[in-house]
Amino acid sequence: MTGQRIWVVDDDPELRRMVGTYLTDQGYDVRCLANAEQLTARLATQRPDLVVLDLMLPGDDGLTLLRRLRDGGDDLPVVMLTARGDAVDRIIGLEQGADDYLAKPFLPRELSARIEAVLRRRVALPAGTPLAEGQRIPIGEQVLDLASRTLERDGAVTVLTSGEFALLAAFVQHPHRPLPRQRLVELARGPESLIDSRSMDVQVSRLRKLVEPDPGRPRYLQTVWGFGYVFVPDGQPRSR
Q1: CB atoms within 10 A of CB 133
Q2: CATH 1.10.10.10 given to domain 136-231
Q3: How much is the pLDDT for 130?
């Protein structure tokens, strides 16, 4: 992890100092920014490996910035900071494409663990995956390209975030196998992930918007009621 570039965007100077000092001591190249304008200006000429982004910022807030990145096809890894452990904040952040979230107050070590987990997902598929780099996997009318981490349909390309790609890769390497939420968390985020397994519902819902013709009536990422989810490559109804 040494030398990877982390940008911390928060309007609290004491938090920036604390987090910046801790992450620097962990070997990261850290830059601390106070608001959306500073982040937007720096992104015009530079690019970090990950952004720690506060939800509540003066001017454009963190969700607005995140939405702008994702709408522009940018899969820059983002760990969202929320002012409280409100489930609504967490769900909205995940729906907008955050790779992970952390509620304030938090220990710097916990933030470092979240950052490490997201960066690991950026460089590798889940452990033990049999999928070959460069393989293209059909999902209905779309194709998942493992090399570029994109979904393609009729010439249109959708760049997946690291969290979206890790979860979709977990599904495609276990076709027709019902997977409980906690197992999906382990496959997509690692066995030491602290993320709430119920948040997997939000992640699956986001994936369905990308891969399903009708997300309200999913064919490929089907629900196994009372258990979890299952990837059905041919989109055929699954017997209950």
Answers
A1: 7
A2: yes
A3: 44
